[in-house]
Amino acid sequence: MEKLDLQEVAYFVNTNIVKFHQSKVKRLESLSLRSLLKKKNPYLFRAKNITVATELITSILDAFLSSSEEKLFGDFLEELAIFIAGRTCNGRKSAATGIDLEFENEGVFHLVSVKSGLNWGNSSQHKKQENDFDTAVRVLKQHQSKLNVQPVLGICYGKSKSKFVKNYKRVAGQSFWHLISDDRDLYTEIIEPLGYKAKQHNEAFNQGKGKLINSLTAQFIEDFCIDGDINWEELVRFNSGNMGEQ
What we know:
Low-confidence stretches: none
Mean pLDDT: 91
Strand order of the largest sheet: 1-2-3-4-6-5
Radius of gyration: 23 Å
């Protein structure tokens, strides 16, 4: 492997982390009250005894943004992994279904599916990943029968020993970043540039979030409150009622 230039990595992170923050703001700008209310469980929020409209809107928005943010940041980490592998071993984004990265090192051709954390997907998604690895290996072997192919599930963060699972090898945290860089400390070295202008970006995001909460709360009070009380029955009808549509 070629030695990784950490300054290049820092520049890539600084440039592309901006896109992550911009994507968060765009998600905010695209939200409407009704689209948001359709996505979350009204029974859960009723069980939490929420009585204040602002608290309800904030809780629903935070739940939505948390899952959305995880997806956006997972996409960023995938791009970072591909960039690093490209610098160290001519790695590239894979065209194979379900495979994110492919590279060759020390006579082994790696097919890598990149995931954010250890707790990813359900059983059917795990099965699909196994099938995607099988298909990708079979296609490669058709052209190069003697090629030594190793499917890898690369987990960006989490403490777990590397091990073989089904038809692939799972590597997580430090071991994953070491696999694509040959740098045992890369997993800690990339944390500092991730904070590039984080304060400014988050201040702008929180300002936009505050405005959105105020706007959505005003609309919610008008549409789903009676004499200042949340009309839970009307909210559930909006979220789940469908018999009249059949």
